[in-house]
Amino acid sequence: MNNLLSILKAISDKNRLRILSALLSHEELCACQITELLQVAGATASRHLSLMVNAGILKNRKNGRWIYFRINTEDISLGPIFKWVKHKLEGSNQVAQDGDALKKILLVPCEDLCRKQRRDKACSKKQTGANG
Protein backbone atom coordinates (compact mmCIF):
# COMPACT_ATOMS: atom_id res chain seq x y z
CA MET A 1 0.00 0.00 0.00
CA ASN A 2 2.85 2.44 0.79
CA ASN A 3 4.27 1.97 -2.71
CA LEU A 4 0.91 2.87 -4.27
CA LEU A 5 0.62 5.93 -2.04
CA SER A 6 4.11 7.06 -3.12
CA ILE A 7 3.17 6.72 -6.78
CA LEU A 8 -0.12 8.58 -6.37
CA LYS A 9 1.57 11.33 -4.38
CA ALA A 10 4.24 11.62 -7.06
CA ILE A 11 1.67 12.37 -9.76
CA SER A 12 -0.66 14.50 -7.62
CA ASP A 13 0.98 17.82 -8.48
CA LYS A 14 0.60 19.91 -11.63
CA ASN A 15 4.33 20.34 -12.21
CA ARG A 16 5.02 16.65 -11.64
CA LEU A 17 2.26 15.79 -14.12
CA ARG A 18 3.92 18.17 -16.57
CA ILE A 19 7.24 16.36 -16.06
CA LEU A 20 5.57 12.99 -16.55
CA SER A 21 3.79 14.19 -19.67
CA ALA A 22 7.01 15.59 -21.13
CA LEU A 23 8.84 12.34 -20.47
CA LEU A 24 6.02 10.30 -21.97
CA SER A 25 6.68 12.23 -25.18
CA HIS A 26 10.48 12.39 -24.97
CA GLU A 27 12.69 9.45 -24.19
CA GLU A 28 14.94 11.39 -21.84
CA LEU A 29 15.36 14.95 -20.60
CA CYS A 30 18.15 16.65 -18.69
CA ALA A 31 17.30 18.23 -15.34
CA CYS A 32 18.15 21.65 -16.77
CA GLN A 33 15.64 21.11 -19.61
CA ILE A 34 12.94 20.14 -17.10
CA THR A 35 13.78 23.16 -14.94
CA GLU A 36 13.50 25.39 -18.01
CA LEU A 37 10.19 23.84 -18.99
CA LEU A 38 8.65 24.34 -15.56
CA GLN A 39 10.12 27.84 -15.14
CA VAL A 40 10.89 27.12 -11.48
CA ALA A 41 14.02 27.33 -9.35
CA GLY A 42 16.46 24.46 -9.73
CA ALA A 43 15.84 23.39 -6.14
CA THR A 44 12.11 23.17 -6.78
CA ALA A 45 12.59 21.06 -9.91
CA SER A 46 15.05 18.89 -8.00
CA ARG A 47 12.49 18.22 -5.25
CA HIS A 48 9.87 17.22 -7.82
CA LEU A 49 12.28 14.94 -9.65
CA SER A 50 13.56 13.38 -6.45
CA LEU A 51 10.05 12.56 -5.29
CA MET A 52 9.28 10.93 -8.65
CA VAL A 53 12.52 8.91 -8.63
CA ASN A 54 11.92 7.79 -5.04
CA ALA A 55 8.39 6.68 -5.95
CA GLY A 56 9.84 4.59 -8.77
CA ILE A 57 8.12 6.51 -11.57
CA LEU A 58 11.35 7.90 -13.02
CA LYS A 59 14.87 6.61 -13.48
CA ASN A 60 17.90 8.87 -13.74
CA ARG A 61 21.46 8.65 -14.91
CA LYS A 62 24.40 10.97 -14.65
CA ASN A 63 26.50 11.78 -17.70
CA GLY A 64 29.35 14.07 -16.74
CA ARG A 65 27.80 17.18 -15.23
CA TRP A 66 24.30 16.42 -16.45
CA ILE A 67 21.56 14.32 -14.87
CA TYR A 68 19.05 12.80 -17.27
CA PHE A 69 15.59 11.51 -16.39
CA ARG A 70 13.36 8.99 -18.14
CA ILE A 71 10.18 7.03 -17.47
CA ASN A 72 10.73 3.82 -15.50
CA THR A 73 9.84 1.23 -18.12
CA GLU A 74 11.42 -1.57 -16.09
CA ASP A 75 8.42 -1.74 -13.73
CA ILE A 76 5.72 -3.09 -16.03
CA SER A 77 3.04 -2.46 -13.41
CA LEU A 78 3.45 1.27 -14.10
CA GLY A 79 2.53 0.91 -17.78
CA PRO A 80 -1.24 1.17 -17.27
CA ILE A 81 -0.78 4.23 -15.04
CA PHE A 82 1.34 5.94 -17.69
CA LYS A 83 -1.19 5.05 -20.39
CA TRP A 84 -4.06 6.39 -18.27
CA VAL A 85 -2.24 9.65 -17.49
CA LYS A 86 -1.34 10.15 -21.15
CA HIS A 87 -4.97 9.57 -22.17
CA LYS A 88 -6.31 11.95 -19.52
CA LEU A 89 -3.87 14.69 -20.57
CA GLU A 90 -4.74 14.47 -24.28
CA GLY A 91 -6.02 17.80 -25.52
CA SER A 92 -4.72 19.68 -22.49
CA ASN A 93 -3.72 23.25 -23.29
CA GLN A 94 -0.85 23.00 -20.79
CA VAL A 95 0.50 19.85 -22.47
CA ALA A 96 0.32 21.57 -25.87
CA GLN A 97 2.11 24.65 -24.53
CA ASP A 98 4.74 22.45 -22.90
CA GLY A 99 5.25 20.57 -26.18
CA ASP A 100 5.86 23.84 -28.01
CA ALA A 101 8.19 25.07 -25.28
CA LEU A 102 10.16 21.81 -25.29
CA LYS A 103 10.77 22.07 -29.04
CA LYS A 104 12.58 25.36 -28.36
CA ILE A 105 14.29 24.16 -25.17
CA LEU A 106 15.73 21.09 -26.90
CA LEU A 107 17.50 23.32 -29.42
CA VAL A 108 19.56 24.94 -26.64
CA PRO A 109 22.64 23.10 -25.35
CA CYS A 110 22.46 22.11 -21.66
CA GLU A 111 25.51 24.28 -20.95
CA ASP A 112 23.63 27.36 -22.16
CA LEU A 113 20.48 26.45 -20.21
CA CYS A 114 22.57 26.00 -17.09
CA ARG A 115 24.26 29.36 -17.58
CA LYS A 116 20.90 31.06 -18.10
CA GLN A 117 19.39 29.40 -15.03
CA ARG A 118 22.35 30.50 -12.96
CA ARG A 119 21.91 34.04 -14.22
CA ASP A 120 24.74 34.02 -16.74
CA LYS A 121 27.36 32.78 -14.28
CA ALA A 122 29.56 30.02 -15.61
CA CYS A 123 28.40 26.59 -14.50
CA SER A 124 30.94 25.08 -12.18
CA LYS A 125 31.98 21.53 -12.99
CA LYS A 126 31.32 20.65 -9.36
CA GLN A 127 27.63 21.56 -9.63
CA THR A 128 25.56 18.47 -10.42
CA GLY A 129 22.16 19.29 -8.93
CA ALA A 130 18.85 19.70 -10.75
CA ASN A 131 20.22 22.47 -12.95
CA GLY A 132 22.55 20.01 -14.63
Mean pLDDT over the full residue set: 88
In whole angstroms, the N-to-C terminal distance is 34 Å
Sheet with most strands: strand arrangement = 1-3-2
- The strand count comes to 3
Radius of gyration over C-alpha positions, nearest whole angstrom: 14 Å
Q: What is the helix fraction of residues, given as a range?
A: 55-70%
Question: Could you spell the SSE succession in H and E letters?
Answer: HHEHHEEHHH
Strand % is 5-15%
Structural class by helix and strand composition: mainly alpha
Instruction: Give the number of helices.
Output: 7
Largest sheet features: 3 strands, antiparallel
Gross morphology: globular
Low-confidence segments? 124-132
What's this entry about, in short?
This protein has 132 residues and is mainly alpha-helical. The chain contains seven helices and three strands.
Model description:
By secondary structure, the protein is mainly α. It is globular and about 40 Å long. Helix 2 crosses helix 5, helix 3 (31-38) crosses helix 4 (42-54) and helix 3 (31-38) crosses helix 7. The protein has helices spanning 2-10, 14-25, 31-38, 42-54, 79-89, 93-105, 110-117, and strands spanning 29-30, 58-63, 66-71. The protein has a three-stranded antiparallel β-sheet.
